[in-house]
Design a protein that fits this description.
4 helices; alpha+beta
Length: about 80
């Protein structure tokens, strides 16, 4: 994800989450392969860290023609168990 797209998505976040300017890539098909287990392992650790810091996470999906859509924007207080 390039910086311009990251900034565009960041502006869609609730104001309290826009304060976080540092992003970390937790999973990429190109870098981590197609294992669903790897996706869960890498994003599970990110969700735990985000809850501890009051941050959140964004799940963005790139389609086959290069378009990117943010599918999920969650803050720590918006997550539910179960």
């Amino acid at each position: 994800m390039d910086p311009a797209l990251a900034e565009e998505i960041r502006l869609l976040l609730p104001p309290r989450l826009q304060l976080h300017e540092t992003w970390s890539l937790r999973y990429s098909l190109e870098q981590h392969g197609v294992s669903l287990s790897t996706l869960y392992d890498r994003t599970g650790a990110a969700a735990t860290a985000g809850a501890a810091t009051g941050g959140g996470y964004v799940l963005a999906v790139r389609d086959s023609v290069g378009g990117v859509s943010p599918l999920s924007i969650l803050g720590a207080s918006e997550r539910t168990n179960g």
